[in-house]
Amino acid sequence: MSPDIDLTVPVPGHHALRDRLLALDSRVFDAVATRHWPGGDRVLPRLSRSANHGVLWFAAAATLAVSGTPRARRAAVRGVASLALASATINTLGKRSVRRPRPVLDAVPLVRQLKRQPITTSFPSGHSASAAAFATGVALESPAWGAAVAPVAAAVAASRVYTGVHYPSDVLAGAALGAGAAFAVRGLVPTRTQLPPPGRPFVDAPALPDGEGLVMVVNTGARTAERVGALRDALPRAEIVECDPADVRAELEKAAARARVLGVCGGDGTVNAAAHVALRHDLPLAVLPGGTLNHFAYDLCVEDARDLGRALTGGEAVRVDVGVFSSGDIRGCFLNNCSLGVYPELVRERERWESRVGGWPAGVLAALRVLRADQHPLRVEVGGAQRPLWLLFAGNGMYHRMGLAPGRRYDLADGLLDVRVVHGGRRPGPRLLAAALAGPLTRSPVHTGVRLRRLKVAGVAPGTLFAYDGEVTTVEGDLTLEKIPEALTVYRPLQSR
What we know:
Blueprint: H1 14-34, H2 40-50, H3 55-65, H4 70-97, H5 126-141, H6 143-162, H7 168-188, E1 202-204, E2 214-219, H8 225-234, E3 239-243, H9 248-258, E4 261-266, H10 268-281, E5 285-289, H11 295-299, H12 305-314, E6 316-327, E7 330-334, E8 337-341, H13 342-357, H14 359-372, E9 378-382, E10 385-396, E11 399-400, E12 408-409, E13 417-423, H15 428-437, E14 447-452, E15 454-468, E16 471-491
Parallel strand pairs: 2-3, 2-4, 4-5
Antiparallel strand pairs: 1-6, 6-7, 6-16, 8-10, 8-15, 9-10, 9-15, 10-13, 11-12, 13-14, 15-16
Helix pairs in contact: 2-6, 3-4, 4-5, 4-7, 5-6, 5-7, 6-7, 9-10, 13-14
């Protein structure tokens, strides 16, 4: 075959179609430039400038974060993460792939033009991408907040054409990329509405429309003030007892003697104490999250007073398993998980710093200090053989993970312990990280995950730290972990918001 023969097949009308689209783009741009929008000359240029470098959206995220609801805080984080991905995509690929010049400003009135004109290429619009990414990310987590943010995002996108810095197609392409970034973030970290609702089996429980018969014990040492105010509004006839952390157990016992339903507001450790009392008095338990982590409440889809109020008003509840541990004369229960090894040390270190720097910073600081310390793995006997280990974790129910989101339990009455073991080695940090990234029920040289109904650990040295639901005690000798199936009735809304 002759190398001079051109086998390229021309596409009829290809250039003509492109030219028609570009001409349409220019006509729409000119129509916007020559049309006066009431109030637009005063508002839209300022709005466009406020979105420079994402300042407007970071301010919106801060407003959501301080609103006090977990869903709003998650929406803020998801919006910022979506914006970050969209910006990175636009700046690394979009602007460099299509080097389209900015529109000519002859038709744009001077009053609309930005004082400082952009120097980057026109396609696609970064401002529109950021606006769409933030608004879409917020809406995927909280449709109500998304509806509030969407008009502002649309106005920012429109302002880019109105001020003459972008063609309409630049804005549309940027908005599409931004929305796509938000959905990509959702693929990595699913929203709570994508997760299967946990909790079964559903059981009948007393319906308390105004909260009459509920005695709610509130640990004032936790972050509870705002939650208690919302609870009073949702359940005005509930009895609320506020007390210091040292008095929580005594007040729970008093409340159980006169309550139809025992309620508790605090962190996971406070909820553990309330579960212990509710079990002994055969009372249903109502949990309002008020601590740093609130694993149990969130796994019940109870995030605030409105969720709990709906469950109590409708008498909506589930039966859940209760984990039990025993070592010599020491016996207790756990609703979330328990562990041996470095995690109890981390919990104790976190408690030292929490009052000074806050919950999450204290957790990060504790992890850094514990993992950098010179230490040796714990040696215990499991399955008839002595083993060195950095961590033995037992969850009350199987933890599942979707994408990069933290593990959650979909079934709180599965009768199983989710046991994870990180084997001993020279350095705990890399092994713990590998175990955290690994899926459940995996086996590797550094990590093992199994499901069990009962676990016995022997040869535990005296004074060994043992953590359960954020509390720390010491154990020695033989340690037994098992479950009481469907032992506790807990209120949970049947339909999560």
